[in-house]
Write a structure and sequence with these properties.
This protein has three helices and eleven strands; from the N terminus they run E-H-E-E-E-E-E-H-E-E-E-E-E-H. With 220 residues, it is of the alpha/beta class. The protein starts with 6 loop residues before the first strand and ends with a helix.
Amino acid sequence: MTGAAPEWITTPGLTDYRAAEAWMEARATAIAAGTARECIWLVEHPPLYTAGTSAKPEDLTQPDRFPVFETRRGGQYTYHGPGQRVAYTLLDVGKRGHDVRAFVKQLETWVIDTLETFNVRGEIREGRVGVWVQRPEKPPQPDGGPAEDKIAAIGIRLRKWVSYHGLSINVEPDLSHFDGIVPCGIAEHGVTSLVDLGLPVTMDDVDVALRASFDTVFGS
């Protein structure tokens, strides 16, 4: 399958999390073996929390609110739920340069370029995983800088140099659902979404933007 463009799959409805993990692991194994194409899988999940390999128990503040799934992706606690676009990114990082840091940078750029489609400026912050937006209408940070909210999360795992898991962008989730965790271990900043920012953006709009931005960042 070397040289073939990644397959894009969009699954309607809400996808069971453990079923998604099993599918990703099988697909990553097949990609590594050369028997399947790379893949971008777009899904939504029912409300749930996931714990990455760096998750701290104290960051799960409401353990009985939603199902909690231990997972082998990097990172800490995240929330997934309806209205959030999850893009599972099954790509051969080996053939793309064997550079995990550069690959994560590409994922960040992909999110930032996608947000730019909607005139939203996404930014990266040293020491904080994910993509952030400034909220000057909110009270400033203690250091006097503008408030910032997280709009996208990134967390991957590699299997034989093939990535799986990926990223999530908040389109129109119930932001109160994030209250049961300290998202990615960062308590001093909030969470936002495209609709929370006042943009009438649909999931289909985001999917189109993701596809166009992917080709720019990664090539087809």
